[in-house]
Each structure stands twice: as C-alpha cells, then as structure tokens.
Amino acid sequence: MSIINMKLIIFQILVLLKCTSVYCTTRPIIGIMAQEFAEYRAGGSINPVGSSYIAASYVKAIESSGARVVPILTNQSYHYYERILHSINGVVAPGGSNEIQPGCPYYDTFVTIIKIAEQMNNKGIYFPIMGMCWGFEALFTIYNNHKLLQTSCDAYHQNYALHFEPKFTQSLLFSNIDHQTYVRLKYFPITAHAHDWCTTQRNFTNSRLSKYWKVTSTSVTSRGLKFISSAEHKKYPFIALQFHPEKPTFEWEEWLNLPHNHVVVQANRHFYDVLVKLAKLNNNKFRTEKEEKDALIYNYRPFYPVTKPAIFTQVYIFN
Questions:
Q1: What is the tens place of the pLDDT at every residue in 178-225?
Q2: The pTM is what?
Q3: Of 193, 195, 233, 244, which one is the catalytic site residue?
Q4: Which of 41, 160, 273, 319 has the fewest CB atoms within 10 Å, counting from its CB?
C-alpha cells in the first residue's frame, strides 16, 4: 500500500475520531497564488490599479468547500514563502496567461513554493498543491526540467467530459468519488476549459513527466484531439487540473460559454472538496491569532470590473 493511500486511510480514521488537533486541522487555510496582470488585465482596464490579482471565483470555491483563504504574493523573499507555507494547509495555483518559463515572477514563485512543499512532505508534513489550467501546465513544465511540451488545440472556452484512466480510483483525486459525480463527469461535457494548448499523451510519454506523474483522466476536443485533463504526482500530494472547476459556479459572462445548471455545479464541487480534505491532513497554523487574521483574504475587498467583456466577475487586487 502506498504512503498516499495510507495517509487517506489515516485521514478517514481521524475524521471518525473527530480529528484531534495533534494530527490534523478542522480549520484549514488554503493559500492562493496571486499573479501579475497580463495584457488583458483581468478583462479590461482595471481601476483601482494594482500589480497583481486573484480571481474571486477561486476564493469562493475554496470557502464553499469549508476552508479559508490567504493570498500568496509574487516577488517576495524565500523566507516569506517558507513562513507562509508553514502557516497554511495547502496551495492553489490558479489559471492565467502569464508566461510559463523561468524569469516570469508567477512561475518563479511557483518553483519556490513547490520546492518548499516537497521539503515539507519529505519531513512528514502532508502538504497538498492543486494547479488549475496555468497551474497544470506549470507543474508539468517544472517537473520536465523547465521545458514546456504542448500541442496547439481548440479548447478555449469549451466544455468536455472526462475519460477516466484505468485504476483512476487509486488516485487521490478520484479515490472517494461518488457514483453520481462519476457518471456526470464521465458522460456529460461539464468541465470548463480555457486554454489554447494541450498536453497530449505523446507529449507526456516522450518527456520525463511519466517518471514523476500519472495521468488520471483525459478529454477529447471537438476536432478529436485527446489530451490530458487531470494528473497527480506519484510521490507528493500534488494534483494538476487542466480545467476550471470554479468557473461554472462563480463566473457569469455569457461569452465564456459556461454551463451553470445544478448538475454541473455539484459535480465540479468535487475537486475543491478533495483539496480541502487533503489540506486537513496537516496541522500547520500561524504563530498567533493576530498574524492569522492579518493574512486572511478578508482584509481585501473584491473588485467588480465594469469594463466588459470581463474574464472574471470579481477580482482581488494587490499592490
């Protein structure tokens, strides 16, 4: 039995025993990486002006699954990232259009976060990371010696079903998936994609990625291109999603082509629920109550971009 599966069993036992604070937490906090504004500046001219942002949909999704949020800023010291990761219980790397290469602040920040998270896991502190879209691509690039291997595809603002890989139930992501959610994800196009590039099975097997990662699901574009839609690290609790499970619930621009019915909302909730459950497996916390309160996203107000069309319904902006 793998260490990951053992951790899941331990987690389930601790939940049944009301999870004592010695081994895990019932007050999880997830860090969301802020990213510098790209050329679209979150869908139009942003006012007030800031240097980085987080889409509010990620915050709402995490809160809906029972956790609080702390923003993780770019261009900070190594000590800052080390301190904040030891104070929170997991990290989300959201989608975006920043470059996926060394020298890009968002990418370099993620490299540092992964390094610290690996060290924590190696020391027995179970620390999950979930990357969506850009986060998916960045995870693959980092573990492929910073080489981006992708194929052009037509998956921008499209919705697809998931084709589960053999033994998918042995993964962190799908080990406890209920039958109803499984059926909805497998047979209906309800995962929201917003990317022009895909990672194919050929990209995957012809690189060093298969040494570190296992594919858990694929999807197929309208032109018949099969690509990887979800994967997870073989050693660490790092999950990569090429799609956006937060968008169908919290983003509302019609041109985004998002499904919004209750079936879609309930099925996509599965992914953030998994992240929050995994985050409860460590007992990281801030040193003081004041330090925790000062770090939380509650200290910031979401901004509603009035310029249309907007990529995001609301954004948090950081100087």
A1: 999 999 999 999 999 999 999 999 999 989 899 999 999 999 999 999
A2: 0.91
A3: 244
A4: 319
Per-position DSSP letters for the chain, written without gaps between them: --HHHHHHHHHHHHHHTT--TTT--SS-EEEEE-EE--TTGGGS--SS--SEEEEHHHHHHHHHTT-EEEEE-SS--HHHHHHHHTTSSEEEE----S--STT-HHHHHHHHHHHHHHHHHHTT----EEEETHHHHHHHHHTTTT----EEEEEEEEEE--EEPTTGGGSTTTTT--HHHHHHHHHS--EEEEEEEE--HHHHHTSSHHHHEEEEEEEE-TT--EEEEEEEESSS-EEEESS-TTHHHH---GGG----SHHHHHHHHHHHHHHHHHHTTS----SSHHHHHHHSGGGS--B---SSS-S-S-EEEE-
Instruction: Say if residue 10 is exposed, middle or buried (CB neighbours under 10 Å; 0-12, 13-18, 19+).
Output: middle
Q: Of these residues, 133, 153, 195, 198, which one is catalytic?
A: 133
CA distance 314 to 310: 9
Per the annotation, the verdict on 244 as an active-site residue is yes
Residues recorded for the chain: 319
